[in-house]
Amino acid sequence: MKHIIITLLAVLLPALASAQSWVKAWQQDATTLYVYSDVQKETITYLAWEKRTYDTPEKRKERMAALGVGEPVAEIKVLHEYNNSWTQHRTKTISVFDEKGNCIQTVPGDDEWQYITPESINESVRDTAKNIYENGGK
User: Fold this and answer.
1) Theoretical Cys-Cys bridge with 34: which of 51, 55, 87, 131, CB 3.0 to 4.6 Å?
2) Do residues 104 and 81 make contact, with C-beta atoms less than 8 angstroms apart?
3) Average pLDDT of each block of 10 consecutive residues along the chain (138 residues)?
4) Considering the entire predicted model, what is its pTM?
């Protein structure tokens, strides 16, 4: 019996952990945004990963054309940095992935801080990241 329980835990725990790794922040028009559940506090800023998935072949081809890459884009991961009051952000890096999970483009971020626009996608991502940080990843 003990071996069965250990085997079940070995199989289920990675699945549960990976299922809890990303928190949905926004969804519309075949695009879904998630925030990684491990928001980091730096000295005076916060770092949070955002993942944008493109959920249909049409949306993936649309993103391919918009970004000028040679493969349909399945997802983009963006590392955001937020100021201490969560009112401004800047992008540290952007990575673009194809349907096979290969990174096909990496773009450095911007040093300029930008205010979060009310009722925007960035506000949804920021609110999710802040909630994750303040509630211990939940």
Assistant:
1) 51
2) no
3) 36 41 96 98 97 98 96 98 98 98 96 97 97 86
4) 0.82
